[in-house]
Amino acid sequence: MGNITIYGIRNCNSMKKAFIFLETHNLHYEFVDFKKTPPDSWLLTNLINMRGKEAFINTKGTTYKKLKESGIQNISEIDEKMIIENPSIVKRPLIVVVENNKILHISIGHQEMEQLLCN
């Protein structure tokens, strides 16, 4: 299947559920905490190309609302730099499966994670 990496914020409730799911299913994974290591350009470019920003930008969270208050009108105006500076804008959990430095699968949210990892 490749190497599983889960991206997010450790204390987030969605992430806590994801950790329990992964551990219950004995799935080996690497965790990247966006608070300590924000998403890099390689990851963001692949996410945008494979899924589009609309799929992984959390428009319901406070980070997006703050960006809107600062003048952002819609998701298309959010660039990589803004995401890197505001990593909590990314929906969680974000699961990326990589093999030979190539992304094979991306899942965003708990339901997609279960579908990807249980099949």
UniProtKB/TrEMBL annotation:
UniProt-listed InterPro entries: Arsenate_reductase-like, Thioredoxin-like_sf
One Pfam family from the record: ArsC
Family that this chain belongs to: Belongs to the ArsC family.
Protein name stated in the entry: Spx/MgsR family transcriptional regulator
